[in-house]
Design goal:
The structure is a homodimer of 225-residue chains. Chain A has 225 residues and is of the alpha/beta class. Chain A has two domains: 2-117, Response regulator (Rossmann fold, 3-Layer(aba) Sandwich), CATH 3.40.50; 121-221, Winged helix-like DNA-binding domain superfamily/Winged helix DNA-binding domain (Arc Repressor Mutant, subunit A, Orthogonal Bundle), CATH 1.10.10.10. Chain A has eight helices and 13 strands. The first copy, chain A, has helices at 10-22, 33-40, 59-68, 84-92, 105-117, 152-164, 171-179, 187-203, and strands at residues 2-6, 26-30, 47-51, 75-79, 97-100, 121-123, 126-129, 132-135, 140-143, 146-149, 169-170, 209-213, 217-221. In chain A, β4 (75-79), α4 (84-92) and β5 form a beta-alpha-beta unit. In chain A, α2 (33-40) runs parallel beside α3, α6 crosses α7 (171-179) and α6 crosses α8 (187-203). The longest helix of chain A is centred in the C-terminal third of the chain and has 17 residues, at 187-203. The radius of gyration of chain A is 19 Å and the shape is elongated. At the A-B interface, α4, β5 and α5 of A face α5 and α6 of B. The structure holds a DNA duplex (30 and 30 nucleotides).
Chain lengths: 225, 225
DNA sequence: TCTTATCCATGCGGGTTTTGATCGTTGAGG
DNA sequence: CCTCAACGATCAAAACCCGCATGGATAAGA
């Protein structure tokens, strides 16, 4: 599990590195926004601890650019500020969580754990969530004894949803990851494939369902109880 | 949000009470160390403003005894002294923060907010105040076992109210943050959505209620127990 | 050529947002 | 104490937007 630490105050950065290292995270530390962006754009991290006040680019800008580049690595924003506007600003820039200094070490670890926890399970060349398994080699979706073949686009979208489970996958992320960054695909395309997938899901009698978040995107849900 | 003010100089105590009351904190004021201890031991407060120089028990002693009794209410120590020794002393006695007189009203409020931050704090993808949790990812409001989906505008307004808790959010601020600076939305629009939100709040049986401040705006309140 | 996958255009249905009307509340002034 | 005006709450209807499904056009591969 790799974590990128972005913090210009070297002592704090060190302390964070040590704290995470003790928990067996592999960490890289950078001290300014420009380096942060370079490192994070490799997409190799499972989480990023990002200070807001930084030389060069500030944390908000780093977060915004990462999301623009469709790097969806979870970001935990760190800041000394305590203003509502900053909280909203941070989350709007694409941060996933937010902590104000000074913070408790245990709490920080808990949040990092929370951020890196979800993700569908990949075993061999299958992705499985609940009763659904997606075979990556033959592009088919299985549930119980039944299975269906998926088209390429269907497959890519399903894989995204499964790997992101149970998080919401924004429509524009689906477009950029499935059609490509420079595509001119429209929202409607996604909707069409979601519709196909729902049909196949109900054919398979899977417990999972694709749910909509209006104006945002889709996520998989196991209807509870 | 309840704050105990401990300050023997009555004018200052009054001023503090007023300042906090404007921000919708409920305050109690006591003028000596013995009363302070009695009141604070009830454990009903979310923060304590504690003067050091007091008749009867001094502030340091009050803090020490509270911690002995395992009351962990955050304490903001107030004093005219500006010696490092006092700061260390105060913090060793169990104070969480320290301000020297004279102090700036804005700074005091910021520190109180910092001490009571657990309320209205962002944890993961959720904002929680009292028994209410707003899930930012799927835009739904939860209380106990029940939950409701919120429309986009409803969601934005609720988020503002929660993040600003317990302060009043002016109507024009709601309009500019939710509809945009250049919008021509009218006050009545806000009122309509507040009405929607109140309906959902009561459906959820939440203890929180949206209260009106005439000609100003709205705020969330936990009806006192 | 035939099949399959993908894309695009369209219209329906339902949720969201706006608007206007009505009625209740509050506070000031007579 | 009454009246009035300003403000706020609520409701219902209308307008609007979004997501979904369908069917046909187009492209790609067998």
């Amino acid at each position: 599990m790799r974590v990128l630490i972005v913090e210009d105050e070297k002592h704090l950065a060190e302390a964070l590195g040590q704290l995470l290292a003790e928990q067996r995270y592999q960490t890289d530390i950078v001290y300014d926004g420009t380096d942060a962006l370079d490192y994070a754009l490799t997409g190799q991290y499972d989480a990023i601890l990002l200070d807001v006040m930084l030389p060069g680019l500030d944390g908000l800008e780093v977060a915004r650019r990462l999301r623009e580049a469709h790097i969806s690595t979870p970001i935990l924003m760190l800041t000394a500020k305590d203003e509502v506007q900053d909280k909203i600003g941070g989350l709007d820039c694409g941060a996933d969580d937010y902590m104000t200094k000074p913070f408790d070490a245990g709490e920080l670890l808990a949040r990092v754990r929370a951020l890196t926890r979800r993700q569908g399970e990949v075993i061999g060349n299958c992705v499985t969530v609940d009763d659904l398994t997606l075979r990556l080699d033959v592009r088919c979706l299985m549930c119980g004894d039944d299975s269906v073949r998926l088209g390429f686009k269907e497959f890519e979208i399903m894989r995204l949803l499964l790997l992101s489970f149970p998080a919401v996958v924004p429509k524009d992320e689906i477009i950029s990851k499935v059609w490509g960054l420079d595509s001119n695909a429209e929202d409607n395309n996604v909707e069409v494939y979601i519709s196909f997938l729902r049909k196949k899901l109900s054919f398979l009698h899977s417990r999972l369902a694709i749910r909509t978040v209006r104006k945002v995107g889709y996520f998989l849900e196991v209807p509870q109880s």
